[in-house]
Inverse folding.
């Protein structure tokens, strides 16, 4: 038990001497200030970088969504073009039914 008490006293004494010695040492104080400033600078850069990354991810998601919508529009336009082509082809193959028919064929602009 006496070894334990002596070890604790030695540890406390060493701790007091080291802490007080470093606290009163101007070189250590400058080191601590520079370390703190550099740590804050790195933390601020990390926050800024994470915000930029989040913004870039949002832009990437928006770009992907816009590309998807553009592909949908393109596919719809292609489908409409094919449908129009098929209908025109069928109309040309059938030919005019009669001059008096009430068909909806395009006859050009109205005559004035």
């Amino acid at each position: 038990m006496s070894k334990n008490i002596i070890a604790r006293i030695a540890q406390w004494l060493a701790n007091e001497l080291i802490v007080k010695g470093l606290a009163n040492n101007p070189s250590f104080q400058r080191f601590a200030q520079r370390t703190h400033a550099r740590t804050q600078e790195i933390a601020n850069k990390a926050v800024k970088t994470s915000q930029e990354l989040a913004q870039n991810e949002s832009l990437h998601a928006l770009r992907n969504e816009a590309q998807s919508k553009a592909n949908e529009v393109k596919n719809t336009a292609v489908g409409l073009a094919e449908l129009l082509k098929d209908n025109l082809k069928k109309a040309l193959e059938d030919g005019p039914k009669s001059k008096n028919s009430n068909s909806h064929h395009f006859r050009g602009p109205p005559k004035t």
Notes: DSSP finds two helices and no strands in the chain. Helices lie at 2-23, 26-94. The two ends are 121 Å apart (CA to CA). The chain has a mean pLDDT of 85.
